[in-house]
């Protein structure tokens, strides 16, 4: 038995799957890898995925979750998303406490998203 899994797939609930799909496909440009009707799964990296499932019980104001997307191109993503009308809660900033460079914005569901670059490579 291996000590690791093949890849992560994290699901989030949404009250409006169509609006969520437009944001993640058209604005972020993520590839849809599986449409399950009431759930859609997107590739966010070579072997990482997120999914959204439409549920009436989805939180209206989600809290306690940050979806972090790691890239070396934080500034490029910030500019690209600003050009598409995305409102950022925090522009790109160096955070010496955690050794990262990052920015924050919210998706149409209210989930907090972070675009982040590590100052040093992870082991």
Description:
- The chain is an alpha/beta fold.
- The chain has one domain: 2,3-Dihydroxybiphenyl 1,2-Dioxygenase, domain 1.
- The chain contains two helices and eight strands.
- The chain has helices at residues 17-27, 74-83; strands at residues 9-14, 31-35, 39-45, 48-54, 66-70, 88-95, 100-106, 112-118.
- The chain has a four-stranded mixed β-sheet, covered by helices on one side.
- It is globular.
- The two termini are 22 Å apart.
- The model has no long low-confidence stretch (mean pLDDT 95).
Write the layout of secondary structure elements.
Layout (H helix, E strand, L loop, with lengths): L8 E6 L2 H11 L3 E5 L3 E7 L2 E7 L11 E5 L3 H10 L4 E8 L4 E7 L5 E7 L5
Parallel strand pairs: 1-4, 5-8
Antiparallel strand pairs: 2-3, 3-4, 6-7, 7-8
């Amino acid at each position: 038995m291996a000590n690791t899994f093949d890849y992560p797939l994290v699901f989030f609930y949404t009250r409006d799957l169509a609006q969520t799909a437009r944001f993640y496909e058209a604005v972020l440009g993520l590839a849809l890898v599986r449409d399950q009707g009431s759930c859609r799964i997107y590739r966010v990296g070579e072997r990482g995925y997120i999914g959204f499932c439409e549920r009436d019980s989805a939180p209206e104001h989600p809290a306690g979750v940050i979806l972090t997307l790691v890239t070396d191109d934080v500034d490029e993503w910030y500019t690209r998303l600003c050009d598409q009308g995305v409102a950022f809660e925090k522009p790109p900033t160096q955070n010496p406490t955690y050794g990262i460079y990052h920015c924050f914005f919210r998706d149409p569901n209210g989930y907090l998203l972070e675009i982040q670059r590590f100052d040093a490579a992870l082991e």
